[in-house]
Write a structure and sequence with these properties.
Keywords: Transferase. One of its GO terms (molecular function) is glycosyltransferase activity. By secondary structure, the protein is α/β, with parallel strands linked by helices. It folds into two domains: about 210 residues, Rossmann fold (3-Layer(aba) Sandwich), CATH 3.40.50; about 170 residues, Glycogen Phosphorylase B (Rossmann fold, 3-Layer(aba) Sandwich), CATH 3.40.50. It has an eight-stranded mixed beta sheet, with helices on both faces. A six-stranded parallel beta sheet has the order 13-12-11-14-15-16, with helices on both faces. It has a two-stranded antiparallel ribbon with strand order 5-6. Strand 14, helix 11 and strand 15 form a beta-alpha-beta unit. Helix 1 crosses helix 15 and helix 8 crosses helix 13. The longest helix has about 35 residues. It is globular. The C terminus is likely disordered.
Length: about 375
Amino acid sequence: MKIMIITETFLPSTDGIVTRLTACIRWLHRDGHEVQIVAPDLGVYEFDGAEVKGVPARALPFYRSKKFALPNRVVKKYIQDFDPDVVHVVNPAVVGYSGVNYAKKLGVPLVASYHTNLAQYMSYYNLGMLKWLMWWYVRRLHNKADINLCTSQTVQTELQEKRFERMHLWKRGVDTEQFHPGHHSRKMRERLSGGKTDRTLLLYVGRLAAEKEIEKIRDVLEESDKFCLAIVGDGPHREELEKHFEGTDTVFTGFMHGDELASTFASSDVFVFPSTTETLGLVIMEAMASGLPLVAAESGPTKEQLTSERNGLLYDPQIKDDFKNTVCRFEDETLRKRLADQAFTDVAAFGWEAAAEQIRDLYKEAAGVKVSKTAENSDTVSEERR
């Protein structure tokens, strides 16, 4: 098959969406398919043999640290030139608007996948009164697709309640070879802990944005001197966070990738994930594969991956200080090691092959649906002409 992936985010950015896409693209290549990627032009023009077609990108006023590609007619040209069997628009919002509409106008089978709760994020940028409009806009784009995907059962239920159509659950996965406890490094631990290697090292990895609620972690450091913290990633909220954590045992590293990121996970002790807005959080699985227990908010998507008291601890965002009190339970090293061992065991069977096979089959299904619709339309026209 010839598969075009149009995405709002791609390399060199690193997040759960990019992780999922790169893993599946590699598998699709091994399975004999041709892939072309359309993404914001950030200087990457090839991945694993697939051409990356850039769309001019710029920072938006309310999110200066990341560049977005706006709707652009060049997307139509890219689709026409590549002539794909199927177009997959990932997280349609900005350049994805062009992907959805041009794919439909050109009669190309269309798959769309939902990864980010944009409506919920708006509250963190003082735009909460427009949440209804964002839901309307995103639903309108998705309902043009032949097949829609999301990454958790909880989100699938929510989207169906909001009248999103043709929803499928896209399986999750993790690279259990790259993320593994065996990548522990004493040198990395010294770097992440600021030399305080005897402390229990808390780790946060992800985008530094207001909706991630990273500020909550400071309460733990003020409550107990047994912890230190490493914050890995970058984003629009970094400057505010550096001020917020000033005077605490916190190290900011910026972005990390590949083997360095794998070593970061394996060299830490506890992964902390305060966010209450996640649709899946693949970083949770990367932490588990690295042998880390977790503290995360009790929510539907998170509970699909974590079982409290088994492989991590869940906190209740509605209870004051529950995050702080839950993390502080990891002063108990016995508890930490027990949950860490179980986290590693629970995720060991996951890989990306099943998710990639599934998306290939859905691409074929979408193309088949389109062909049958075309055939039905031809029959109707023939009947009318008679």
